Structure formats: structure tokens, C-alpha cells
Amino acid sequence: MIDISLRNKILILFLSLIVISSITTIAAVLLATNNSVEQQAQDKLKVGLRVFEQIMDIRANQLFESAEVLTADFGFKAAVLDKDEQTLISVLENHGARIDADLMMLASLDGKLLASTEATTQETKSFPFTDLLSEARKEGGLMKTVMLNGKAYQMLMLQVNAPVPVAWAVIGFLIDRNLANQLKELTNLEVSFTAIYRDSQTLNISTLPLDKNHSSMTKEAWQRILWDDNEYLALLSPLVDGGYYQVNTILSTSLDEAFARFSPLKIQILSISGIALLISVIMGFFIARNVTRPVNTLVTAAQRISSGDYSEQIATGQYKYNEIGKLASSFDRMQHEIADREEKILYQAYHDALTGLANRSSAQHHVEEHLKHHQQVEQSFALVCINLQKFKQVNDTFGYQIGDQLLQAFAQKLEEISPPECTPARLGGDEFLLVLNDINEDTLSDELETVLDALNTNYCIASLEIPVSVRLGASIYPEHGFRTDQLLRRADIALNAAKAKELSASIYEQGSEEKHLHQIRLVDDLKIAISEDQLTMFYQPKVDLHQKRVTQVESLIRWFHPELGFIAPDEFIGLAEQSGLMPSLSRWVIRNVLNDCMDWKSQGFELVMAVNISAYDLAHDDLPDYVFGLLKELKLKPDDLILEVTESAVMQDPKQALMILTRFREQGIKLAIDDYGTGYSSLSQLKSLPVDELKIDMSFVLKLDQNKDDQAIVQSTIEMGHCLGLNIVAEGVESRESWALLEGYGCDKLQGYYISKPQNSANFIQWFKDYDVVNEYSQELS
Hints:
This is Phosphodiesterase. 51% of the residues lie in helices and 23% in strands. It contains 26 helices and 27 strands. The longest helix is centred in the N-terminal third of the chain and has 67 residues. The relative contact order is 0.05. The mean pLDDT is 81.
């Protein structure tokens, strides 16, 4: 047995411990470093993917807003109806140039190409996206990534309504190297776009110095790949999988470069370990105590960094100027640089680019935090949705630059009035969100008034004084909900209620959501009912007291829902006006009424058809052209139709209404003022309108034989109307006594349930055949 001294035993034991400790420490640091590098690479790719999705959403919103502007343009609609290809191409090119669109097309509803800025399709005259039309019709439009001539486009397909759908407008942004470079500048990642068409790669765009065919990549999200002898970590995200073609986005970052940054650190660690082993013979304990402790600190720091925590500074202490200190300083600089880069990327992902306010995603997160806090302290708070009224008019009048500056000034004002602990947000367009703490139903109304006073003011933009007025909709936690999505939705419902009732502010009322969902369903079903002819026309006769026969009928629309049963006109007509369906509904009514008129004429029944039109119809300049074209198509005369419009509809925009009514009158179509006496027009306004008839509202006629005041009003109205040269119609005749009084006053026509209730076309014709006014006079009152 070899005799080893205690000193040597202690030295050998200590050296063994030093060797084992050094190896373990180095392995731990290297493992933590490698894990940190890979974790950082994955986090970097995830953040990059979120930024890319934000960019695609922004481009999608730009496409939608641009498409709405294009399809709403009157000149463009006229060009579509005229099918003037050169004009259409010119409009598409001009509009595309304004928004930097790479693809502009117009196709007919059946998929025939009408115009295109893309050379190949313009030459072949073929519309390349006919296979998407059915999906677009079903959805009312389509946003999708598509392939065309070996290029990928982010494309929006939207209907052109004039006012019924007449064509499909297609607008697209090219997915190209510019987009890849833009994303690379934002994320410092390598970006590639690939497309596989029938198992053959047709598109390969990459920011890498050496383009590589990506067709060999699998559909796995995370992959390690070798490009040009460098190892990369890649994240594959499919943009579209169309069956026979697939477009992918590949974000990648070099693992070699990431690991290379740590090479000096690895060399330093090995050097330090070697020096420690040489000196350990003399100063073993000192080296063990002073090297292991800081190395362990670095291991902890590396693990903390790999978990995404960059907030704690790495302390160097007494080792500030040696190798361990340099290593710690390098780690510290690395974590600060990573934190700064990630902070910039996250800021862009969670803030509105124009105003700097929190965006919708960030707002939802802040509301979640409010919910957690207020659940603990058992306090309430309110969410207030804010809408800038008539903001579109600012854009239309002063331009989008002034509109953007107004939004920025408004956002600044919103930040000034927000509580310090609450973050205001821009939800999109001209809608914002404000959070108010310690609010209940008793104090909310006063707080909303304070907000209105602060926001309803003039904003000085580029030497312009622009007045701003807002509408508010509010919901309260916990009275109106316990979830973020529920509170936001109900605040939005309250805002819609404020718009519908023309109020400055509205607080959510219990049961409004169910009513809102019911109304949404009715609007959706009404679209279908109009397009599929599920509505029915009823007719109520008007008796001409001079000719002693029925000469006119009033057309009344009815909706018998297949599931909900009868829907009252007062309910669905109001929804049609609010949802923009009124023009389509009115045109459906006019066409069906005139079709019935033509059918009755073929049977020998000559009756004038009265149709009601609303204020929304008078706002469309093309309504007269539509009616004139329909009369010509059905070979009917202008005097076969009389249009009835209420006083209130005329007074919403008297100048516009007078212009439209004058065009109808000039073409020989008779006009009537409906529900006279319930509006607020003056006699001077009445005499300026080009009308032929005055219909006394039924509220004055229903109990005419019993109410002396009604008799005085009706008699004076008839005399006044005759003095103005108007025929007078009394609606709401319920008795023979009222008939006799009206005839005695000189009324020209009568309408009401005493004569006949409204009936469908077939029943009305049968009633008309059997009805004889002379019988009324054979039953003279005693």
C-alpha cells in the first residue's frame, strides 16, 4: 500500500473536489447558456410572429377601408353600371396608386373579368378567382391570401352595390421581398415566404443572403434547418392552405450567431477554470470560495434570463475587475439589450400606431387586471365606449391627414382626463375606451356628463377649429357583467343605443343584450328575406268620393318569418333604416308593387299604386333613375304610381328631399304627404313641396264622429289643402258616420278598416270585384 501523507490526501481530495466542481460549474453554465439561447430564439420568433400578424391585420384593415371607399364612390359605381372598361381600368389604377395596391380587379357577379390592372389577366380577360365567389357571396366579402401568376397576394374581395350588388371589387397587396424586409427591420429576424403549387414550389422569397428551396420543409411549426452551412431555428406559419396550393411564412434566426456571442464567455470560463486548478495547490480554499460563488451567481442569472426575466442587475461585487466580473458584465449587457429590443417589439404589438394609446388587445388585458383588482377590494368600475360623431365628414372635408391629427389630439385629451391608474385605449377607427374607477349606477351619469364636457370642445388642427362631439356608452362592473368580453360588449350595446336614440350618453340596461342579439338576427334574416323574396305586399284601397269608386291602393309590406312568425313593420323597418338595408328594401317594394300593377292591368284592373318612401330613400340620388327605369321596363305610365313621404322624412334634409321629389314630379309621378299633422313642417314649407295629395293622419280620423276638436282640425285641414290645390285623403276611417262627415267636409278620398283591411294581392282583387260603393249610399244614415 502506498503511503500518502495527510497533506497530499487533503491536496488530492481538494484537487478532486476542485476538478469536479469546475467541471460541474462549467457544464451548468454552458447548459444554461445553450438553453437561454434557444429559449430567447423561440421567444424572439414568437414575438416576430405576433408583429407579422399585426402587420397583416393592418394591411387587411387598409384593404377593407380602401375597398369601402372605392365601392362607395358614385363615379365608380356609374362606371361599373356603364361597363366602360377604360374608365374602370383608369379608376382602378388611380385608386390602386393612392393606396399602393399591387392588384386591382373588377369582376361581374358571375365571375367575368370587367377590368384589371394585372397585365396577364387583362390580356386573357379571365377572372382568376371564380372558385372563391361562392365563399365571398356567403360571407358578404372575402379576405384571403391567394396565388396569381406565381405571386402571392393578400387579397380582399368586396361587392359593389349600386345599390344592389352589381360586381366584385378585388384589391390586393403583394407579399414580396419588401414585406419581408419590413418585417426583418422590425424584428431582426430572417423572413421567407414560400408557396407550394401542386407539390411544386412556385414562390421563394427570403431575406437570407442565399435563397434556398423550402419545399423540403415539413408542416411542423418549430424546425432546425441548415442554410448555407449555418444552423437556424425556424417557425413556420401557414398563410393559406387552398388544397392545391399552400402559402407559408417562415421566420428564422441564426443559432450559430447566437451561440457565437457566447464563445468568448466559454473561453473565459475555461481559462478561469484552468487558472483555478493551477493555483489551487497553494490557494485551493481561496479559489474554491471565490470562484464557485460568482459562477453560481452567473448560473442563476443565466437561468433567470432564459425564463424571460431581465429586470435584476447581475452583481459583480469584489470581482468587478477580474474575469468573473467581465463575464457578469457581459451577461448584464446582454440581458439589457434583449430587454430593450423586446420592449420595443411588444410596444408596437400592444399600442395603436397612430395615437400611441393602448390597442384593443392591450385594452382587454388592462380590463382583466381591473377585474382581478376590483374583485379583491369589492369595488365597482365602469367601461365607457366613446364614438366621435361625424368623423367621416372631417376626413371627407379636410382630408385624412387632418383626420389623423384630430385623432391624435383627441387621444391626448383622453389621456389628460383618464385617472392615473387607468389606461385609455383606441378600439379602432373613431372609437375609444375609457375606464372609470369607484363608479356605481348612482354616480355614473354625473361622471359621464363630466366626460362629455371635457371631450365636446373645439380642437385646433392646422389653424382649423374643428368642433367635436361624442357619444358615450357605459357598462358597470359587477352590475352588468363579470367578464371582460361581456362588459366590453355591453358598453358597445349601450353606445349603439345612444346612437339609435340620438343621445349623448347611454348606460347599459338589463335585457338589452338579448334585444340586441334579437335585432342582429332580424337584420341578418331580413337580408335573406329581401334577396329570397320572403316578404309579402298587402294592399288597402282608397275610395274616391267624387268618382264613387276605388281608384288607388296603398302598398303595405308584411313579413311572416318562418320561425318567429309575424314581424311588425314598425320593428323591422326601423332596423332596416339603422342597418343600411332601407334602400334595398324600398327597391324590393317598388319592384314588387309595380309587378302587381302590371299583372292587374293585364286582368283589366286600373288602379294607382301608392308606395311609401323614407328619409333614407330621399338621401339617394339614384332612386328616381331606378323608378323611371322600372316603369319603362314594365311598360307602365308615371301616373300608375304615387309616392307617399312623411313630413318628418322631408324635414331631415329639406334641400335634398326637394331635389329628389322635384325630379319625380317632373317625370309625371304624383306625390303625397303622408301622416300630415304629426310632423313639424310649416305651411311655408308645405306650399314649396311639389306634392299632389295630403293624407290626414289617422289619429285625427279614428274617432272623428265622437271628437269635436278632431272635426275642427280635419275640416280646416281639408279647406286649407284645397286652397293649396291639393287632393285630400283621410286615412283611418272606421265608421259610416266618419265617412259622412268627411264627405260633407269635401274630402276627396277615404281609406280605412271600414272600407277594407289590408289584404294580399289575390284576396284584394277578389274583394275589389265584389265591392260596390253605391251600396254605401243605399245605407244612408238616418
